[in-house]
Amino acid sequence: MYGTRVAVLGAGIIGCACARELALAGLEVTVVDRGAAASATTAHGEGNVLVSDKGPGPELELAQLSRRLWPQVLTAVAERLAHAARAVEWEPKGGIVVATTDAGARELTRFAAGQRAAGVHTEVLDAEALADAEPYVTREHTAALHYPEDAQVQPAAAAAALLADALAAGAVLRTDCEVLAAVTRGGRITGVRTSSGLLEADWFVNAAGPWSGELSTRLGAPVDIRPRRGDVLVTTPLPPTVFHKVYDADYVGAVGSSAGDLQTSAVVESTRGGSVLIGSSRRRVGFDDRLRPEVLSAIAVKALRLFPTLAGVPVMRAYGGFRPYVPDHLPIIGADPRLTGLWHVGGHEGAGIGLSVGSARLLRELMLDQPTAMDPAPFRVDRPAVLGGGTGTVVEEAV
């Protein structure tokens, strides 16, 4: 496949991971972003690499694949770009899920049993073990589980490391370059019109995160990826207070909900700088990027139930971002059946950081017709939840 040109449309962590896989495979890769690399959704994430929040099924399998790949990828990056790999701040610190009601304990126990059957490592924590692991967590709990496989990265640095490795392998980055329309010939995409001129390639990868739905419509092959807003509170630096990623058992229900109104749950974790990140919220408000005090208040209330000692701790800032949401809660990875040469990788919602390297590996295997690390069929583009209507902006050229 040497000499094959691929344009990756989007330089968030998904696009950066895809660019790296394809460049290392010997393809001629150009990465395009309408802004700067890793400056949108990726820069507004918490950096989670989780298996704990996924029930048995294809998304969990993709998470397990990605969890195996992350250390391998970072080791490979470190061999070429040691500083970039260190900046990722890979921390396999594990996660702890805490139930605070009897109903939550029953659901958490049931959920974990299914996960264990699917190969997820879980450990039941009694009151003493939980206190040892998280001294400041609430003692008013009904169940707690430890997930030692959960990890965390610094998301923007992780994307930058993947992109740097792609560039070192010959990829080219074009920023401040907005894709406006597709150029097609005989049912195949051959180029895209951009704000910087025409970009031609053999394959095009739609990796635009929450904007993938809008971009796909411009390309004439719409997929149903929508933005889903989330907000995070950031405390001032504290002495060691939170030692794992800790969240309440309601989090899994919020992730899997399709409701458009506000969904909140307590998600609390520290950074290496000492700040504590407090989430999380989910609401569908389009691309309205305004912070809402009532949302931040709801997040804080849930967090204080989990960590009462955070009461009175100063919050130095809050930020929000948009997750790429698909109605059936599964990513899209594969070739578009309507427009030859167009591929989609997106719709990971809040799991894009963790799932990026596994998704990129699947894309490369599919593109190059190689055996796949897992069954890609559940992520196919031509499933009912994904295909939308519309014609987009297409420039048809004569053959």
Question: What features would you describe in this structure?
Answer:
- The chain is an alpha/beta fold.
- It contains ten helices and 20 strands.
- The protein has helices at residues 13-24, 58-80, 82-87, 102-117, 127-133, 155-168, 212-218, 250-256, 293-306, 352-367; strands spanning 5-9, 28-32, 48-49, 95-99, 123-124, 143-147, 151-152, 172-174, 179-185, 188-194, 197-200, 203-206, 226-235, 245-248, 263-270, 276-282, 315-325, 332-335, 342-346, 394-396.
- Strand 15 (263-270) and strand 16 (276-282) form a beta hairpin.
- The longest helix has 23 residues, at 58-80.
- 51% of the residues are buried.
- Mean pLDDT is 93; it is low at 394-399.
Which features characterize this protein?
single chain; 399 residues; alpha/beta; eight-stranded mixed β-sheet; six-stranded mixed β-sheet
